Amino acid sequence: MKLIMLIMLIVSAISLLYVLLRQRGAWQVAMTFCLHGVMAFVLLYLVNSTGWLAGIQVATNASTLVTVGVLGIPGLALLVVLQTYLI
């Protein structure tokens, strides 16, 4: 089973590289996605490092990074409100 998963991972990675090298617009999408991910991580880091005074701690994991990466600052505000009032 692990061998099948490894083969699928390798084939998927090669296919992704082929698509990225073949189409120029795909690089822009990939770079935009990476830039949004980095900015989301920086925003979450800033909230976690400065929010300890107010008791605000938002976990840095895949779901929070995607939320902040897609929605931006409103997504970060949504996570802070959810963390403060619901959890």
Structure report:
The mean pLDDT is about 85. The protein has 4 helices and no strands. With about 90 residues, it is mainly α. It is about 85% helix and about 0% strand.
Q: What brief labels describe this structure?
A:
mainly alpha, single chain, 87 residues, 83% helix, 0% strand
How are the elements arranged and paired?
Blueprint: H1 2-22, H2 24-50, H3 62-71, H4 73-86
Helix pairs in contact: 1-2, 2-3, 3-4
Separation, N- and C-terminal Cα atoms = 38 Å
> Nearest-angstrom radius of gyration?
17 Å
**Structural class from helices and strands?**
mainly alpha
Proportion of residues in extended strands: under 5%
User: What order do the SSEs take from the amino end to the carboxyl end, as H and E?
Assistant: HHHH
Q: Largest sheet at a glance?
A: none
pLDDT < 50 stretches: none
Global outline = elongated
Count of discrete alpha- or pi-helical segments spanning 4 or more residues: 4
Kindly report the average pLDDT value.
85
Helix content: over 70%
| Strands, count | 0
Task: Offer a quick outline of the entry.
With 87 residues, the protein is an all-alpha fold. The chain has helices at 2-22, 24-50, 62-71, 73-86.
